[in-house]
Amino acid sequence: MINTKGYGKGAVVLVAIGVIAYASTLVQKDPAPLAPKPGEAVVAEAVKGFSVSAEGIAPAMFASAPDPRGVSVRHVFDRLVEYDRRSDRIVAGLATRWEVSEDGRSYTFYLRKNVVFQTTPTYRPEHAFSARDVIFTFARLMKDDHTYRNARDSEDYRKVGFPELLASVGSDGPEKVTFELSVAYPKFLGNLAMDFASIRSEEYGERMTAAGTPQQFSEMPVGTGPLIPVVSGKGDARAWRYAVNPDYWGDAIPTEQPKELPRQVIPPSTYGID
After folding, report:
1. Bond from prior residue into 31 cis (ω within 30 degrees of 0)
2. Domains of the chain
3. What digits encode the pLDDT tens for the residues 44-87?
4. Quick one: CA dihedral 17, 243, 226, 33, positive or negative?
5. Interaxial angle between packed helices 131-142 and 151-159, expressed in degrees from 0 to 180 and rounded to the nearest 10
6. Which of 18, 109, 140, 231 is the most buried (most CB within 10 A)?
């Protein structure tokens, strides 16, 4: 776990996720990393290595095996529920609890309060996370003509059978969302923990539409997760940069990286990554 409580709101920690495109390539160890001086701010970059080539790591835009898209999606966005690998259970995310009807066809989620979407150099949210964002998120998956429909997310939505399964998504106030299913489906919660169900900001979409820059919705995404994209890779998987979200509602950043992949925290500019 990477504890975010040790960083003040003024401290910026950039995180670069490097995608290494050579088979069996490991991230080389720094023989003598420089230790920070007492009282000196710690600025570091985390590098993740992959043993296969990848298209990129822009959230919700690329996929390979292993999927580097998940590296960023898991940290930029949150979902209503999350899959906890340690307990092998579905746990609370942006929903603190949920209820299932007796016939198994209705799921009601009670949303977490006081969660705000990320602030970026070009966007500052005016509204907190609410049921409207959940409805917006699933509308972009359910409607083929939605302005912010994403082909990759929609394909994953289709693969798990949601077009036939999900009848409607509605709200009863800003903190309560109900999903109506066509049939009882015990795996529904597990599917909501998948990347395609990452919650997006309705306000951000509306703001980008009004500004005539809808492409920014995908190119510089905004979520509620612990990391904020601050520099777009623009086609270079190694060039994305992330900052710690000072307004993150959780306590820590889950690393969630496969055990077989090497990992280390290195000083900036090491190995040519700035």
Report:
1. no
2. 1-77+225-274 (no CATH), 78-215 (3.90.76.10)
3. 444 444 444 444 444 444 433 344 445 567 788 999 999 888 88
4. positive
5. 80
6. 109
